[in-house]
Amino acid sequence: MNFRWKKCVNNRKVLMERPDIVFWRHRYLREMRCHRKAGRPIVYIDETWVDSNLTFKKCWQDDTVLGVTANVNSKNRLIVVHAGSSTGFLTGALLVYKASTKSGDYHGQMNYENIKKWVLEKLLPNLQPNSVVCMDNAPYHTTVENPTPTKYSTKKVMIDWLKNNRIPCDQKMRKAELFSLIDSNRPKKIVYKIDNLIEKEGHEVIRLPPYHCDLNAIEFVWSSVKRIIKERNVTGDLSLDNLKSLLQTAITEVTSAEWAAHCKHVEKLENNYWEKDGLLEDLVDELSFQIDTNDDSDSEETETCESDLEDFKMLE
User: Fold this and answer.
1) Among residues 190, 184, 181, 187, which one has the least CA distance to residue 155?
2) Which of 60, 71, 178, 231 has a CB 3.0–4.6 Å from the CB of 237, allowing a cystine?
3) Which of 182, 180, 187, 158 lies closest to 171 in space, CA to CA?
4) pLDDT tens track, the chain, 316 positions
5) Residue 299 C-beta-side C-alpha neighbours within 13 Å
6) Residue 290 exposed, middle or buried by CB count within 10 Å (0-12, 13-18, 19+)
């Protein structure tokens, strides 16, 4: 009979992206094209981590010669924050500190105060004039200036926000009334604290679209840094001092030429996105979605509604 157990197909012809993500990417690409045309320095910032057991998962070995045995219980983890451009890592911008926990997502080891201190002390003093700072939307990058209260906020928080924004309100108003005032007067544009710090110094911040880490050149550089560490971590369990030393060596060995190549690759990806988005937009416009007016379920619902209406008229 030649039957096989396999997944059934459906009639989906096109996999569509979320419209808000597409819009964000269009806006980002358009802004980046303008910045590149103007010749502005583009600086990519990001955070990553390195463990003392950072090793290659595979290597040449046989029954007598085993590969590097990584210590899965290693307690040494470093958080790394840096910035760079097509000319290389930004001089003086490196921040390295020991993580408070050895496991879990490294984003949990970062917070707004840490990133604020790094921006003020290491990033801003070393940026070229009129730079464009490219960053992702990690929680510590998106701390909002003058956050708008939610409907779950306390009454005091709501009243304080209204007063600070010079919106008349009465202490005797209920929370529902206060939130209605807040909702009708909420700022149209979200302002982030980090953006304000950077823009006050004459620079500009551009936010990567969600799920587009491939457009951040420093992500490729982190891969190179970790590859160097893996190549030289022959014990599988470095001490904290040795890990710091090896990390510094790896960062030093990433040349400006490699940075330039990664930035060029990102620019190529941007152009590909720009071109493909235009083609997809034209393709979607040509698609025609037909609605089957003879659908049984729809007709049954219509008949039921009409019969109910007739019964109702008869009762009248």
Assistant:
1) 181
2) 71
3) 158
4) 678 888 887 776 666 778 899 999 999 999 999 999 999 999 999 999 898 887 776 767 777 766 666 665 667 889 999 999 999 999 999 999 988 754 445 555 688 999 999 999 999 999 999 999 999 999 999 999 889 999 999 999 999 999 999 999 998 999 999 999 999 999 888 889 999 999 999 999 999 999 999 999 999 999 999 999 988 887 777 788 889 999 999 999 999 999 999 999 999 999 999 988 877 676 666 664 443 445 554 444 444 444 444 443 444 4
5) 5
6) exposed
